[in-house]
Description:
This protein is of the alpha/beta class. Helices cover about 40% and strands about 15% of the residues.
Amino acid sequence: MNFHLSPIGVKSADAVANFWIKQLAIHICGDAGGAATLFPVTVLEAIQKSADFLGKKGVESSRLNAELLLAHLLKMPRMKLYLNFERTLTAAETDSLRELVKRRGQREPLQHIIGSTNFCGCEILVNRHALVPRPETELLAELGWNFLVTRHLSLVTALDFGTGTGCIAIALAVKCPAAKISALDFSADALALAKQNAAVNKVAERIEFFQGDGFAAIQSEGRVPRVPNQNAGDSCHSSLRKFEFDLIISNPPYIASAEIETLQPEVRDFDPRAALDGGADGLDFYRRLAAEAKAFLKPDGKIMLEFGDGQADAIKKICESEKWIVESVQEDYSHRARILVARR
Ligand SMILES: C[S@@+](CC[C@H](N)C(=O)[O-])C[C@H]1O[C@@H](n2cnc3c(N)ncnc32)[C@H](O)[C@@H]1O
C-alpha cells in the first residue's frame, strides 16, 4: 500500500494504520482523556484508516464500508470520492466520520447507519423495527412483478405476507402500475415504516396495509377468503373476491430458533427477532402458508416463497403434502436454491 507521509510524521503503512486505530480506540473506549483531537486527514487517508479499523473489528468488505460511510457523510456518490482523494477533511467531518466508523465497528448494519437502502431501484428507509432488505429478495420481487405484468390484466392483485419495510410490496407496485397490493405484518412498528416507504416511493394509494398474525390480519378486517368449492359464493359475493389474489409472495422468517445466536452480529443484534425466527426447524411459516394460502389465491394464481440455503427440499415436501403444484425452484446469484414458485 502506498501511504502518504502522515502529518504526524510516521511513514510505514502499519504505523499509520495503528495510529488511526489507536485514535479510534481511544475515542471509543474513552480512555486517554476521551476523544483525541485528530490531525487533518485526506479522503484517501480517512478511507484507508477507517477500513483498517473496520477490518480489525471483523467487518466484511471493510474498505467498501469505509467508502460508503464517507460518501454518505460527504453527500457524494461513492465513485466521486476517487476524484477527491487529496481533499482534506474538516475537523467536523473527521469527528462525524469517527462516530460513523465507531458505530459500524460495533457491527451496527451499514444500512441502519445510513438510514436507507436501495431495493430494486426504490429507496427503502430502514430501522431496527424491520429486516434490512437483502439482495436475494430482489430476485423474489422481480419474479413477482414479471408474473403480474404478464397477466395483462387491467387490475392485478398481490399479497405480501410479512412485509417488513414494505420493500417487496413497493417494488411490485412500482414495477406493475396495474397492481393493487395488500401487505400484512405482525409488527405495528414495521408497518409504520412500510407506510412511510410507500409514501416515499409514491405508491401509497395502491398498497393497503394490515396488521395481525398471518392471514388473520386480513380476515380481522371483516374480509373472508374464498371458500373452496363454494360455487354460489364465488358468483354472488363480490366482497369474497376482494381477497383472492393473483399472487401471494413472502419472505417469511426462516431461521431455526436455536441458530439465531450463531448469526453474525449485524443480523443477530439488529434485525428484529420476529423477522428471523421460523420456529424450531425454521419451517413454521411454510407450513402455515402451504396450509392456508390456497383459500386466498385465484385459481390460476401463484405463490412465491423465499427460503434459506438448504431448505429447498423440505419446503417442496411441505407444499406438495398440501397439494400445491411446485412449478420451479429458483437460485440466487450464488446458485443456491432460494425461491419456490407453486400454483394450486
Ligand atoms: C424475513 S422478514 C421479511 C421482511 C420483508 N418482506 C423483506 O423481505 O425484507 C419477515 C417479516 O414477517 C413478519 N412476521 C413475523 N411473524 C409474523 C406473523 N405471525 N404474521 C405476520 N407477519 C409476521 C416480521 O415482522 C417480518 O417483518
